[in-house]
Amino acid sequence: MHKVFAIVGMCGVGKSVISEYLEKKGMSKIYFGGVTMEKLKEASLEVTPENERIMREKLRNELGMGAYAKILLPRICECASKNDTVLDGLYSWEELKIIKEELNDNLIVIAIVVDKKIRYERLSKRHHRPLNQEEAQKRDITEIENIMKAGPIAYADYYVSSRGTFQDMYDRIDEILKEVSYEH
Questions:
Q1: Which ranges of the chain does DSSP label H, i.e. alpha helix?
Q2: pLDDT digits (tens, 9 = 90+) for 49-69
């Protein structure tokens, strides 16, 4: 079994930036948010922040707080049997527990963190699904209260600040990879 790197953090911290960096290093990538998009498409619903929230909560109401891990676990295990893998967007504590139970020490959780003000500025300027400050605050509270997003961030193995440049983040990721003896 290869290593699986779960990238966690609040919306707007740069999870996708780090996931893409690791993917460019040769890792397979599994995007948790892709499940939401697939389910919205199946339901013929428009991709909006509100519909995304409704779908995330619907899936978790039906399958429990570990819904995304339950849906993606076979794919995660298949990828990890062949290659090091990055998970972009693991959210809930329950998801973390499910994946950790299966992967044990092969799961490494990396939390990306930055000041809330910086996150909100980034979210307002991003091209894909921008959020204004009110929408970003609402999403934060919803994710903390309804999705239990804080657990995986608090319990991460490593932390990366996204306050500096992309290169600063990449350098920190490279330090972590070296520490966990990642060789690719």
A1: 15-24, 33-42, 49-63, 67-82, 93-103, 116-125, 133-146, 150-154, 166-179
A2: 789 889 988 998 999 989 999
